[in-house]
Design goal:
Blueprint: E1 13-18, E2 25-32, E3 35-41, E4 47-50, E5 53-56, E6 58-63, E7 68-73
Length: 97
Amino acid sequence: MVPRAETQSRYNLIKSWVDSQSCVSLKTEFYTGGAVVKRMTVSPKALKQNNKHWYAEELLVQDLKQGSQTVLKITGVSSDSKLSDSLFNSNSFHIGS
């Protein structure tokens, strides 16, 4: 995927490998200037299903440029909750520093 210029993405290319059964990304690479600078990975064993929705119970994000990493662990999911449309308003999102 190549982000549109108006999105002001930090990355000029994003590649994802998606599990065909769950449609969850198992690996995503973020490129700047032709080099992978971040990588997100999910073990297939970490894929869980809540009702009809799949999610990754644990994922690893590596900052290859800075040599750091973050592990995200999901401890609970509710797939039948009603969420306000205002939570998905793109005007409320921003790019941090």
